[in-house]
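Each field is set out as follows.
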Amino acid sequence: MRSIVKNLTVVVAVLAFAVVSFAQGSDSMKMPGGVKGEILNELGGLEKKYVGLAEAMPADKYGWRPGEGVRSVSETFMHVAIANYRLPSFIGAKAPDALPGEKAVTDKAEVVKHLKGSFEFLKNAVMKMSDADIEKTASMFGRDRTYREIGFFIAGHCHEHLGQLIAYSRMNGIAPPWSQG
């Protein structure tokens, strides 16, 4: 009986620590409410999946592509990273001057570094928007869109290529980290 109580106490303590840690969050920025918070929450989830998948994919698979003329693993990750830097220009964020091309970075560690940096840049760009900015409009790809719509467009772009990379990983016998167990 003492052993059960002792084990139960340990489990409760671990769960309490986990709840406190989760409530504090791992990001250094405080999550705002409203549409901006929803966009940031979506981007945070996408970032975890992208980085997890990029880290789970073996380095020797970064050159793999499903067919001729289709982006490789590294090119797809870099396409997303570059878009994460460039698309926020529609909400007033200035992209870094020197961004590599999709095919220029193939090293796993460098790709992961670019992914992490691009999501940080993207989240900071959204954080800088005021609540009033959500309703502002900007011309994007030939039509006016609200900043809200641009934020969800960016998240949609990320989801599109996440699906592509999930297929790539599964075709190579790698299960996405979040789907294991």
Notes: The chain has one domain: 33-179.
